Amino acid sequence: MIKIEEMTLQDFEKIKDILQHEFDEFWKPSILKSELENELSKYIVAKRNEEIVGFAGIIILPDDVEITNIVTKKSERKKGIGKLLLDKLIEMAKQTEKECISLEVNEKNIPAINLYKTSGFEEVGIRKKYYNGIDNAIIMTKNFNIHF
Ligand SMILES: CC(C)(COP(=O)(O)OP(=O)(O)OC[C@H]1O[C@@H](n2cnc3c(N)ncnc32)[C@H](O)[C@@H]1OP(=O)(O)O)[C@@H](O)C(=O)NCCC(=O)NCCS
Questions:
Q1: How far is the centre of ligand 1, averaged over its atoms, from the C-alpha of 79 (Å)?
Q2: CA-nearest residue, atom 19 of ligand 1
Q3: What is the CATH number of domain 2-143?
Q4: Global model pTM greater than 0.90
Q5: Is 104 one of the annotated active-site residues of the chain?
Q6: 65-113: per-residue pLDDT in tens?
């Protein structure tokens, strides 16, 4: 069974040396550590027994909540862990009473785009050549306030 908990610095110590090899090569340990120390950010981990199998985070901005990353351990993908993490981030974002949750994703990252779409995110814009001056970013948003 997978449990979702707040990410601690001890959790960071457990994954920092395998972060880029076993989780996500684009997410450097120094960036994750500074995110954990940022009081506007909130990070969660997915654990099976005591093994960390995924993590994800948000940053709370004046107008909305942004997802900074969501990562499943490479050997654990396609088992529903990303969806569990995303559902928890949405729940946390709703509690802040902001209007929406949003994110940027590489237009070539089909697994992530599909994950966000299954949870009700919509494509609302594009940032051209956002990644490495080459790939476009898609901006996706899920609004919480539905007016009838
Ligand atoms: C994106 C990511 C977090 C998905 O994690 P996961 O645990 O494998 O996802 P889940 O098993 O919960 O899948 C949920 C949905 O995502 C989509 N999805 C996940 N992997 C997919 C793949 N390889 N191809 C297409 N769609 C995929 C599907 O819609 C899936 O629903 P389904 O299983 O009913 O088809 C994972 O691929 C990852 O860590 N990628 C590297 C980091 C990254 O790019 N993060 C996003 C940054 S914006």
A1: 9
A2: 111
A3: 3.40.630.30
A4: yes
A5: yes
A6: 999 999 999 999 999 999 999 999 999 999 998 999 999 999 999 999 9
Can you tell me which atom of ligand 1 is nearest the CA of 70?
Answer: 45
Cβ neighbors of 68 (< 8 A, separation 6 or more) are 35, 41, 57, 58, 59
Domain ranges of the chain: 2-143
Per residue in 50-61, pLDDT tens? Answer: 999 999 999 999
116 catalytic per annotation: yes
Q: How many Å from the N-terminal Cα to the C-terminal Cα in the chain?
A: 39
Ligand 1 near 88 CB (within 6 A): no
Rounded Cα distance between 36 and 7, Å, is 8
Write the burial class of residue 53 (CB in 10 Å: 0-12 exposed, 13-18 middle, 19+ buried).
buried
Catalytic residue among 22, 104, 107, 123: 104
Is the four-CA dihedral 39, 31, 42, 133 of positive or negative sign? Answer: positive
